[in-house]
Each structure stands twice: as structure tokens, then as C-alpha cells.
Predict the structure.
Amino acid sequence: QVQLVESGGGLVQAGGSLRLSCAASGRTGSARAMGWFRQAPGKERVFVATINWSGSLTSYADSAKGRFTISRDNAKNTLYLQMNSLKPEDSAVYYCGYGNSVWGGRSENEYAYWGQGTQVTVSS
């Protein structure tokens, strides 16, 4: 089992920045990708960004490109999402996922474990 705990969410004005963190614990010894997804009220959970085990490969949703940066510190078992130039449409609960393999994808099915989420609210 792997436990994931997200933090760093909050209320920010449009144009502001937030840095989300996701701390992993438990059976984290295997090389696995990690990713961020988000879910707005009344909508499905959607892909935001993913990073491979070593951190050398990343992929972003079009909505996140150029504004968000995913990174990880394997020594600390922690995943990050730096979000800049935030927009009201970025408001959602953000979830981190622990992948099934060394490279994650854009489908929820490629992630075996999920955190409880952290709320991000961007005011206009």
C-alpha cells in the first residue's frame, strides 16, 4: 500500500501562484511515475501533469503548459506542482496519483493510489 497526502492548496487571486506538495509513504520502494489530476465541481477528474520515476520526463495537459511545473524529490518521497499565473478556471480539488509503472500517462487507470486531494480556489 502507498499513502499519499497532498498539501499547499488554498485561496489565491488570479495571476497568483501556489505550490502543491504530495508526500508519499508506505511501499514506495518501486520506481513509479506520479501525476497530478484535478476535479472541478460537477465535472470529471482530469489529467494535469505527470512525471516519470527519475524526473527526466514530464507531460502536461494543454491547460497547464507554460504555467505549471511538475517535479519530484525521490529522497523525500515528495511530488510537487508549481502553479503560476493562476486563473479562476484552475479552481478545483487537486489530487496526486502514484503510477502503475515508471512512466505515467493521462488516464486515471494508470495510477494505482490516490491522495485525498487539496482544494485550490482562484478568485477573479
Observations:
- The first strand starts at residue 2 and ends at 7.
- The chain has a mean pLDDT of 96.
- The radius of gyration is 13 Å.
- The chain is about 0% helix and 50% strand.
